Recover the amino acids of this structure.
């Protein structure tokens, strides 16, 4: 149960022309499961390594429970990291691997044996204690690495791409296990991933990082519904973007005036961008909507199982809409259509 | 592999072994014979005379336990040289590995400018004829007071040894994953324990190979010991050469056996690390 504050963190490497981590501020509450999300090379693993103490930041601070970590050596921070490739010590068997952290603390051998047994049961691998890491599958190695990390009750658990080396079916299983264990032990957990789906499924909050800069730190739901900027929206599959100008309580765009109900209206600049999820757009052949309705032309219809995707040209703009395939009106390419952007579903953000 | 080819390979290995072992057999016979001359195929008379002259076996009639003890305690030249060779060998092996450890770690794990040049400079003692650098070194060693003593000989042995040790250990670190150390650190191991429990087991097989090279290069060093030791530090190779020039084949054979025996013993115990199947040159990287 520990809360972590990252303040103005900066780290540069001589081989890079921009800072690897550029002025990152984050406040992670106790017991939260947080994802660091971003493309590879965006600096997310660098932040993890600074939290463990394997890298020293150029400036800024990392504060765990009101105490700066920077002067504390790695082994005394209570921050445990599980590396991407598990790194089980090859010369030790599973029991010795899992018990490693307690052995370093000088805990009595009987207590270690007892705890190792408990941890292996927790990760659902009770009977493999005497095997060597080489004899384990990738999924088993991952679980052992998790057990090894958790045995000493770390204050912070760091997972570097925990699912990326696993097969698809193992990935689901492992994801559930991580969530279950995290909720059971309430350990503050940060994991790094480049897969937004993984981040959405696992995390309470996602820190989106591009080029060493924190873009946004909020719940997965907000990334879909209330993205902070166009980059964040695009990373989460946003496709519809409309340039808009603030104008007397409304937003005026190329395709017409848009009514807006978002709570951030007062924060908006003069120039801003409207976005809407493809699944929130409504279509109708007759103009039976009250507001935010625009006439357009169907450019393409793509059936993709449960959903059908439409591309619609509205004036010079192309919008994408995704409707449930069940009970659809008969809409074909080149049909004239009315596009409805519900005022409570659109979201405007500053450029 | 083709079966015939396999057979040929096996025969080739046997042939190689025979070529290597035959002279040793001749050596052995010679060391225990009395006046074995051409055209005798086997010696007419066996004798321990050579060993008696080396003061390793007492004269006939004194060959009791006490006799052996008394003889060896009188500090014969062979035993003195043997102990010198062994102690110099072990000492320079340990020192060379301690020096090479950080150097090879950097060379194996990092890439930087002039890395190839640094490696070339480090390997240069293996290309240069020893006489070329030892004459220059000798002048300095005399003025520093390292000439004609044990310390100077140890120091000069490091010159031909370091390239082998650094290169072998660079190979280990090139395949070594330092994240294992980071993992151990985050699990609560301090730097010392991380080195002992994680780094050392990973590099140990390769270190044994490097130590083997180091010891054998030191063990067979003649010229450097001769020049820097100035005749005051007697090692086995020096004794072998001076005995060989005396022209008694039995004596030369006997002392040669003493010279090669420790080397064979060490090779025997470390051979499993030298074969490509061990982790000697892989560290944790390939596991």
């Amino acid at each position: 149960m520990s809360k972590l504050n990252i303040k103005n963190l900066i780290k540069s490497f001589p081989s890079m022309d921009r800072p690897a981590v550029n002025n990152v501020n984050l406040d992670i509450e106790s017991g939260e499961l947080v994802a660091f999300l971003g493309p590879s090379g965006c600096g997310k693993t660098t932040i993890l390594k600074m939290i463990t103490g394997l890298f020293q930041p150029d400036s800024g601070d990392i504060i765990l429970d009101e105490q700066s970590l920077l002067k504390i050596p790695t082994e005394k921070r209570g921050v445990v990291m599980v590396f991407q490739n598990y790194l089980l010590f090859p010369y030790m068997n599973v029991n010795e691997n899992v018990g490693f952290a307690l052995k370093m603390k000088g805990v009595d051998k009987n207590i270690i044996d007892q705890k190792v047994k408990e941890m292996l049961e927790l990760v659902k691998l009770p009977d493999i204690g005497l095997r060597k890491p080489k004899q384990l599958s990738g999924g088993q190695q991952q679980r052992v690495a998790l057990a090894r990390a958790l045995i000493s009750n770390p204050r912070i658990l760091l997972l570097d791409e925990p699912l990326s080396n696993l097969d698809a079916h193992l990935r689901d299983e492992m994801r559930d296990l991580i969530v279950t264990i995290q909720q059971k032990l309430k350990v503050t957990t940060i994991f790094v991933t480049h897969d937004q789906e993984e981040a959405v499924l696992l995390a309470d909050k996602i820190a989106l990082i591009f080029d060493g800069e924190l873009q946004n730190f909020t719940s997965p739901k907000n990334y879909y519904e209330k993205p902070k900027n166009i980059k964040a929206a695009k990373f989460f599959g946003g496709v519809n973007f409309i340039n808009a100008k603030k104008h007397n309580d409304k937003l005026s765009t190329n395709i017409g005036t848009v009514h807006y109900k978002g709570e951030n209206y007062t924060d908006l600049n003069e120039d801003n961008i409207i976005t809407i999820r493809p699944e929130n757009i409504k279509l109708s052949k007759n103009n039976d909507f009250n507001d935010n309705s625009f006439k357009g032309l169907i450019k393409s219809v793509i059936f993709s199982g449960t959903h059908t995707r439409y591309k619609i040209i509205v004036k010079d703009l192309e919008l994408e809409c995704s409707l449930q395939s069940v009970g659809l009106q008969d809409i074909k390419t080149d049909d004239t259509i009315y596009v409805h952007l519900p005022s409570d579903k659109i979201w405007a953000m500053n450029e | 592999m083709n079966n015939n080819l396999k057979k040929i390979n096996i025969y080739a290995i046997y042939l190689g072994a025979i070529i290597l072992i035959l002279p040793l057999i001749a050596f052995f016979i010679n060391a225990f014979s009395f006046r074995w001359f051409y055209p005798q195929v086997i010696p007419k008379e066996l004798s321990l005379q050579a060993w008696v002259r080396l003061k390793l076996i007492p004269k006939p009639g004194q060959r009791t336990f006490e006799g052996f003890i008394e003889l060896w305690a009188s500090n014969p030249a062979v035993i003195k040289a043997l102990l010198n060779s062994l102690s110099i060998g072990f000492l320079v092996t340990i020192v060379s590995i301690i020096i090479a450890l950080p150097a090879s770690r950097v060379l194996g794990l990092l890439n930087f400018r002039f890395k190839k040049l640094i490696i070339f400079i480090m390997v240069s003692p293996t290309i240069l004829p020893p006489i070329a650098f030892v004459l220059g070194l000798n002048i300095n060693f005399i003025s520093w007071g390292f000439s004609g003593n044990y310390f100077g000989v140890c120091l000069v042995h490091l010159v031909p040894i370091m390239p082998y040790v650094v290169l072998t250990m660079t190979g280990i670190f090139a395949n070594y994953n330092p994240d294992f150390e980071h993992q151990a650190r985050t699990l609560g191991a301090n730097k010392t324990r991380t080195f002992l429990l994680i780094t050392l087991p990973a590099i140990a097989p390769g270190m044994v190979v490097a130590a083997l090279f180091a010891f054998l290069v030191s063990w067979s060093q003649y010229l450097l010991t001769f020049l820097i030791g100035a005749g005051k530090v007697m090692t086995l190779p020096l004794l072998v050469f001076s005995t060989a020039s005396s022209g008694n084949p039995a004596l030369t054979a006997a002392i040669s056996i003493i010279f090669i025996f420790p080397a064979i013993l060490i090779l025997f115990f470390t051979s499993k690390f030298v074969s490509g199947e061990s982790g000697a040159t892989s560290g944790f990287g390939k596991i």
